């Protein structure tokens, strides 16, 4: 049965929202800690789905190259073998630029990519960290065609055309963590289309944690088919459309997040897409509407530390986005 509560009046004040008894074993491996609301040290390896399937190490063990021009960047992205690519300064690129397997694309302080995006297409073991993406003409980062083990961490996205981070077409084992998105509409899509189930069912397993969706509109994320998709410890602030949408029989666990001034935290079904399943638990809501929930979600297979949702605003605003870590 679907619980539908669309466009309800905002809830005044802070409250802890939990689902009404429809939760299953998706909490496996979680433990709640009670630290002060301080920013933790940057992870040296991903948690969540990118830690599975052998883990995600990017270009570790390969040589390092520093790039500051479009031609140098695009050539390095296409190079075969393990490589650590350090991005320096502002680089303007056009179109979608292929990233091959076993790459770490790491921004030096202030690193910015404008105009175009990065296309992880049929590639495995890729890390993208500490870069500001601005004004992209298609997607900022596109992960597609059965790419596996991708970690997208501590980046900032603003003022682009389509998705900030889109993951689709049978891709799997990805973690999207500690990113900030602001002044943007379509944020994070998971799953290409309603008709792509033959490629996507059994894949599209992604973790989204400690991201700051800052005044953005929709797709935080918008999910098709993936199960379980794990959305935890994110800060949603003033999102004018909706927070998380589940469709096409996906299973999404939404836990430990902080929703502030979000009229519609979750949608079950979106547009013409059929309903998915969504479990909503241990989230904090401030001046926000009630969630839509439905059904159950597969168990989370990895261990993770869940920050108390009341602390998430301070933790995430202090640590999310580019130039908050040294890589």
Automatic annotation (TrEMBL):
<keyword id="KW-0624">Polysaccharide degradation</keyword>
<keyword id="KW-0964">Secreted</keyword>
<feature type="signal peptide">
    <location>
        <begin position="1"/>
        <end position="30"/>
    </location>
</feature>
<comment type="similarity">
    <text>Belongs to the polysaccharide lyase 1 family.</text>
</comment>
<keyword id="KW-0456">Lyase</keyword>
<keyword id="KW-0119">Carbohydrate metabolism</keyword>
<dbReference type="InterPro" id="IPR006626">
    <property type="entry name" value="PbH1"/>
</dbReference>
<dbReference type="GO" id="GO:0000272">
    <property type="term" value="P:polysaccharide catabolic process"/>
</dbReference>
<dbReference type="InterPro" id="IPR012334">
    <property type="entry name" value="Pectin_lyas_fold"/>
</dbReference>
<dbReference type="InterPro" id="IPR045032">
    <property type="entry name" value="PEL"/>
</dbReference>
<protein>
    <submittedName>
        <fullName>Pectate lyase</fullName>
        <ecNumber>4.2.2.2</ecNumber>
    </submittedName>
</protein>
<dbReference type="Pfam" id="PF00544">
    <property type="entry name" value="Pectate_lyase_4"/>
</dbReference>
<dbReference type="GO" id="GO:0030570">
    <property type="term" value="F:pectate lyase activity"/>
</dbReference>
<keyword id="KW-0732">Signal</keyword>
<dbReference type="GO" id="GO:0005576">
    <property type="term" value="C:extracellular region"/>
</dbReference>
<feature type="compositionally biased region" description="Polar residues">
    <location>
        <begin position="42"/>
        <end position="53"/>
    </location>
</feature>
<dbReference type="InterPro" id="IPR002022">
    <property type="entry name" value="Pec_lyase"/>
</dbReference>
<feature type="region of interest" description="Disordered">
    <location>
        <begin position="42"/>
        <end position="63"/>
    </location>
</feature>
<feature type="domain" description="Pectate lyase">
    <location>
        <begin position="60"/>
        <end position="265"/>
    </location>
</feature>
<dbReference type="InterPro" id="IPR011050">
    <property type="entry name" value="Pectin_lyase_fold/virulence"/>
</dbReference>
């Amino acid at each position: 049965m679907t619980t539908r509560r669309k466009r309800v009046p905002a809830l005044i004040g802070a409250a802890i929202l939990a689902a009404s008894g429809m939760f299953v074993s998706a909490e496996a491996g979680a433990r709640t800690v009670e630290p002060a609301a301080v920013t933790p040290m940057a992870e040296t390896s991903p948690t969540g789905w990118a830690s599975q399937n052998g883990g995600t190490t990017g270009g570790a063990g390969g040589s390092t190259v520093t790039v500051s021009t479009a031609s140098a960047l695009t050539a390095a992205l296409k190079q075969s073998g393990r490589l650590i690519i350090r991005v320096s300064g502002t680089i303007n690129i056009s179109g979608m630029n292929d990233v091959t397997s076993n790459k770490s694309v790491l921004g030096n302080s202030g690193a910015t990519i404008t105009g175009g995006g990065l296309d992880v297409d049929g590639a495995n073991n890729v890390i993208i960290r500490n870069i500001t993406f601005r004004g992209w003409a298609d997607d900022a980062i596109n992960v597609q065609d059965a790419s596996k083990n991708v970690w997208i961490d501590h980046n900032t996205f603003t003022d682009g055309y389509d998705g900030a981070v889109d993951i689709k077409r049978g891709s799997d084992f990805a973690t999207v963590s500690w990113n900030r998105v602001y002044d943007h509409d379509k944020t994070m899509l998971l799953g290409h289309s309603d008709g792509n189930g033959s490629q996507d069912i059994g894949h599209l397993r992604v973790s989204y944690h400690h991201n700051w969706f800052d005044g953005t509109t929709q797709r935080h994320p918008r999910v098709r088919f993936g199960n379980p998709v794990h959305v935890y410890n994110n800060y949603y602030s003033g999102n004018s459309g909706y927070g998380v949408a589940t469709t096409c029989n996906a299973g999404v666990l939404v836990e430990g997040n902080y929703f502030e001034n979000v009229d519609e935290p979750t949608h079950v079904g979106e547009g013409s897409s059929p309903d998915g399943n969504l479990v909503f638990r241990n989230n904090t809501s401030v001046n926000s509407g009630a969630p839509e929930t439905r059904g159950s979600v597969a168990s989370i297979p990895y261990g993770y530390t869940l920050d108390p949702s009341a602390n998430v605003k301070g933790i995430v605003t202090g640590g999310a986005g580019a130039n908050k870590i040294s890589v």
